[in-house]
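Async update (no meeting this week)

Hi team, since we skipped the sync, here's where things stand on the single-chain job. The sequence we agreed to prioritize is pasted below, unchanged from the tracker. I ran it this morning and attached the output directly underneath so nobody has to dig for it. Comments welcome in thread, and please keep replies under the output.
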Amino acid sequence: RLFNYIISTSPPPGHSGKAKRGHLCFDAAFETGNLGRVDLVGEFEYDLFLRPDTCNPRYRFWFNFTVDNVKQDQRVIFNIVNMNKSRNLFKDGMTPLVKSTSRPKWQRLPRCEVFYYKSPVHQNHYVLSFAFGFDKEDEVYQFALTFPYSYSKMQAYLNAVELKFPEAFERSSLGMSIQNRKLELITFDDVKKPDKMDPKNVIHMVVILARIHPGESPASYVVQGLIEFLAAANQPISKALREHVVFKIIPMLNPDGVFLGNNRCNVIGHDLNRSWNRLSQYTHPTLSAVMKMLKEYDNSSCYQVDFVIDLHAHSSLTGTFIYGSTYDNVYRYERHLVFPKLFATKCEDFCQEHMMFNADDRKSGTARRYFVEALSDNVNTYTLEVSMCGYFLNGTNILTQYTEDGYMRIGRNLARTFLEYYRFTNILPIPPVDELRPRKGRPRTHRPRARSKTRSEVRVRPKTTRAYAPISYTDLSICYDSATSEDGSPVRYMYGQGHAGYGGLRMRPHIHQDQFSLSNIQAARFSNLDFSSDFRLKVAKGKGGPAQEPKMPPIEMLNVPPKPHLTIIDFNQLTRGGLEEATAGKTIEREKEKIRRHISVKSSSRKA
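Output:
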């Protein structure tokens, strides 16, 4: 039966009979709902008392209730006055969630409207107060601690995934709870079984447990993200994991507590994550069924259980982190640290500051500590914690709130970490990159343009002679002007012994071969004459004597050809076959002017 009822506050003084518009009606008589009592303490202020867990008054933290019969633009203040956990994320900025009939998506209340403080009116207990304004009438508003995930929602989700991927996994019932609710077991097993079992070729297995505490609903979203990722048929990572590793997933270990809206306990008030070391088939039937399955696979010669991971949601810490155990065997402890390190590289919200490895005797009843002693040494047992609030970006104080998709992303990152681990241990082969990351096609939103039915005629381009643009070198030991000769080749001024004309200076005619070949460059004889930016020849003069003959540089200086560069020409005159017309006219006039200047310089030097 449900332990919550429709709660209607007493009407204000002077009113009687049926509740009028604006007299709020509270309701928690639905699955995962929790609210015990409401007191009207002012005209617009209400004190809310949470119902404790069934048969255990110690735990009072989870709340989930609805409010209706509101008036438009009505503003109220809600005070949750009996929370048992004073150290929680409300101190760090977490706020309750709200949604309404016309806005079914959960939203967090603004931080400026939420207060968490010690109240002297309530015996110095911590009180969570938040102000809210109802903007629409005829709507039902729902408030919750974090994103609810009910037993019925899990059943509906598994039914939908089973219809969508009928061959991806096997769904079975591992047992029944005290109130006769199914303990669902999801198995991913596409591993090819060998004909003859060899101890070296055992089948590796991963076991995932979740929702042992009913109030930690984010763990169910992590499991949902993991199941969706493993069930995807077109994912190469999922296919590789299913073909080499067996996954056993139990999405809800405490279905009775989830249905009743408890915070930590089952229907008889037992905290199941403190009861692994004192199992009873009558008081803990779900835990007994899980332990029986683990013992069978751990003692089997065909299977090797590598991981048992218990998923939880933390109410006082931010980010995602892992709790592990410590061992006297150093090698086992080092092997135990591999998976958390790989998982930290896959999650941007991973918080290493909150990661902890210990052997605390007070936690001997938890799954993490009990399986260390109950199972073989090959089993690595962890507790994976996700925050109920959010995580801080790396190196900043910016708090990013989690959403449903954010929790499911953690489940997908968990699957990617298993892939990295089994590749690291050589269980999975490393396929090519193309197989792991298939080339994605263009989205359907981008459609190619429709081709025109009328095709235009393609005109054949006339054949013309191809003329190459002249290229000239620039070097300190070579005098290269930017001008070109009549036939389009560079003009070279060279000094050599025994050459006639202009005092040893002559213009070398163009030879129809590769002008930049090593033989042509080495055959040249160049002087150490200095050419200024205005391209005037400067000759060093002796004291009172004739001009000294320039010395020829060694041939080793000519082994490395200089860097080429395009000659600057008038591109406006460049047409088909008009390369010579663009360069010849202006170039010849420039060369004549330079030769005249050079002759005048030589004559003046001889007279001197």
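Quick observations from my side:
The CA atoms of residues 32 and 135 lie 26 Å apart.
Residues 579-607 form the longest helix (29 residues).
Reply here if anything looks off.
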